[in-house]
Amino acid sequence: MKRRDFLKFSASTTLALAALGAGEEEGFFMAARSLADGKGAEPMPAGSLGAKEVTSVCEMCFWRCPIVGKVKNGRLIKIEGNPNSPANGARVCARGNSGVQLLYDPDRLKYPLKRMGKRGEGKWAKISWDEALDEIAFNMEKVKKKYGPHALAYFDHGSSAEFMREIFKTLGTENYSSEPAFFQCVGPVIAAYLNSMGYVVSGTRQYIDMANAKAILLVGSHIGENVHVSHVREFVAGLQNGAKLVVVDPRFSVAANKADIYLPIRPGTDIALLMAWVNYVIQHGLYDKKFVEKNCIGFEDVRNAVKDYTLEWAARICDLNVNDIKAAIRILAVESPHVAIHPGRHSTWYGKGDVERHHALAILASLFGAVGRKGGIYFPTPVKKAHAHCIRRKEKEDMEEPDESLRDKFPFVDPFPGVPTDRIIDATLTGRPYPIRLWGINGINIIQTISNPYKTMEAIKKLDFIFSEEILPGETAIWSDIVLPEATYLERYDALYAYDGLTPYLTVRQPVVEPLFDVKTPYWIARELARRLKLKCLSCKDEKEFIEEELKELGLSLEKLNSKGGIIVHKANPYRDADKLKMPTESGKILLSIEDFEDEGLDPVPQFRPTPAPPKGYARLLYGRAPVHTFSRTMNNLWLQHEWPENHAWINDEVAKRIGVRDGDEIALENQDGRRSNPVKAKVTPGIRPDCIYLPHGFGVRSKHLTKTYGKGASDNFLITHCITDPFMGSSGKRTNFVRVIKGKKTLDIPELRPIPEELPRFKLNRA
Amino acid sequence: MSQYAMVIDLDRCVGCHACAVACRAEWNVPTEEGYRRNWLKRIGPENTPHGLSYTFYPGLCNHCDQPVCVDVCPVEPEERLFKSFKDGSSKKMAIKATYKEPFTGIVLIDKGRCEGCGACVEACPYKARYLDETLDDPKADKCTFCFERISRGEQPACVKTCIGDARIFGDLNDPASQVAKLVKAGGARRMESKVVKIGPNVYWKGKEKDIFALFKNFAPMTKTWE
């Protein structure tokens, strides 16, 4: 029932109800309660009480909290956390709460579309599923036949993308899993910890025991603005238990506000600070000698490599107060080994030095012996999970390597599949080393996620064919030849979901409501496409069949899982005895110095190699998250849009005063390549360094079909046109862009309030 | 007699806005400008005498001891029967279209009799009420501490979803309750000013700098009801 109708109804039934005696018998409130649902004599509470409940898994972001969907009269009215979940309980964040408005967004894609105007124009015609899938299959076969399998590229993210990945994989392209999640986000931190500690300490998850820590170090991690419910809970729990907090960040973040020591570091100098701390810890004997001797390799290399990095030197390079950085390292050292040296997450900052920065953090944690111990880096608890045989291709065909792989230049991209996004775009543009002529996109805003969207748009223009699977008609859709409308996470089953953090569990996503409109589930779409391509993968009839197959291997069924509240909780095994520690590396030890890096001509122990400082007149562009938004996916959500409709450009108050910008002024930003942002309001604050300007990510949407958010705020990505590719695994460093302010018709140079030491090179403007 | 109350701990709050959205979902609050039962405003980063602060105002109706919104309601009082959901006892009381519920101290609206004049909306110094003009017959609306939920032993929606457990809800007059203990221990403060002192029943605790910034920006300074 529409809200308007429902209140009209309730007003008119007041008297009728009184006549029924409900008011007299149960008291005024009981009557009010029945009224609210409009059911009169059959009392049904207002709000979400009394709703039918279906357990499922959220995907408003990729932390994937267990949830309960509350359904009344066939309509989803509310989402709460699954009370049986040991991670979040009944809690969900703002986005989790707002899944309702994704499901019922009137802007949703409702049926398959075929492009009518130019690519990027957003003009479509409605077509049938048969037409859409036939055309995709025809083009995939055609491109493969003409240019070979590697001419197909697949950009994927999230659980909706998993099944179609099997198709690209089976067709034999090396470009089958080119996840921005890896190459545009977590690649460097993964490479650092995988090579030093033997496992992915931080990737999708961060195995860092903040809840039990006595001190916590965050280097550029915006916990609280980056909202992952159980992670935030562990952070808050740690602080409530009395943990001391050190935050290193050029911007005064939500986490910084809670810090005992806040270090507003000059961007690009983190390694100087970290290695000076490592040196200090070694020089002052503050490290866990027994732990290092027993469990680490390369201590002497580290000692030698850092011996010249003093705190005084770091203070000058990093533009920090030496007493503060000394106090900070002493706080961390005093509490070791129960100290959480947070590994970080989004780590594609400067292109060069990203892996090294996280390697330096790994070294610091290891020196404190804060690995496998309470409050430190912990080990995931494997949750047994079966794989349905009917998903994967039947016979194992080896992919035929191209003569020159796009992965070749990047020695540490293994063991991850896929190709660096930058390289796919270059190959698409140039045809070298081999042509890429078809893109499939699933779960990604290709324009707002991958750096340098101008280049991405040029590359798309060169393609023979591009298709996407989408929920909303965002930028990806308007650049596609065929758009397939996908069922949201609230309308479908997905594979079993295992969480291996501090509160391990096994759960499953199941539809809270039936799919709306003419949308289809990702599995149905992939299976139909595989059938048309005559591929021997995705042979199960539907999602339920493979879930039951997976559950059967675990001695379970959907019915049994649902009878247990939709979730099975496991016991965690996160800690190890330091004397019996065995790391999942070849040697069983932590590599403080990494020989494999040296073999490839890279630093075995991190060295400080400065990233260029801003050119005169410019500030470095920083970006981050609005806590109510996920990437650029949620800006059109009615409730989230209401909470946070547009972003603001954070400008240091002293800088703003000098250039004549006031809080709330409408400005634009112009980057080093002359690219201008949409208009955006200035947020003038002492909470950012004078050499930086900050924009929350995901705004400045350029698809008119997203009616609630089109034209609101400015896109950080459209200012990120200069990227440095990481030599380890090919990720794109993004914080290598600089901006100045446009107000009215005036271009305002950013005054240099913090002088730059001579050792730091400056970015050279390359402009006519 | 009970007085339900809430303590909001800013040290546990990360400003995620889950409270505001959960409330909007639970009560289907329209998204028109200013329509809110529960909200989160961001404050700063700004300087305070106690250091730089970046904090939040997760706000809701204060269910005041002297609710000025009730005073200004022009609707003729009518007698109603009230029943305690705690012990089942009942009492009769004459109420206007908005009133302080006798067993819980929660300020409620009798939607059936609200005439939509907007006097209470104007009167509230905390802007905790709105007039729902999306309705053919506009009515005032506001936070009820999720009366229907708590009467069934559930937590208010904002409390239930709070990811940092920053909201503590309960009966201030029950010495065993967590709210009573927190308020008694001191350090949790009502958001009042020298001018506006009407006994709000939402309390705030947190770092001195954050409380300073919160009160400086949002403590009401004018008698909006006069």
Largest interface: A-B, 69 and 56 residues
Spans of at least 5 consecutive residues with low confidence of chain A: 1-42
Structural class of chain A: alpha/beta
**Percent helix of chain B:** 10-25%
- With helices defined by DSSP (H or I, 4 residues minimum), what is the helix count of chain B? 7
Give a quick account of the main beta sheet of chain B: strands, pairing sense, barrel closure: 4 strands, mixed
CATH overall fold name of chain B: Alpha-Beta Plaits
Mean pLDDT of chain B, to the nearest integer, reads 97
CATH class of chain B: Alpha Beta
Q: Shape of chain B from CA axes?
A: globular
What does this structure look like?
The complex is a heterodimer of chains A (768) and B (226). With 768 residues, chain A is α/β, with parallel strands linked by helices. Chain A has 26 helices and 27 strands. Chain A is globular and about 70 Å long. Mean pLDDT of chain A is 93; it is low at 1-42. With 226 residues, chain B is of the alpha+beta class. Chain B is built from seven helices and twelve strands. In chain B, the strands form five sheets. In chain B, strands 10-1-12-11 form a four-stranded mixed β-sheet, covered by helices on one side. Chains A and B meet through helix 1, helix 2, helix 3, strand 3 and helix 4 of A and helix 1, strand 2, strand 3, strand 4 and helix 4 of B.
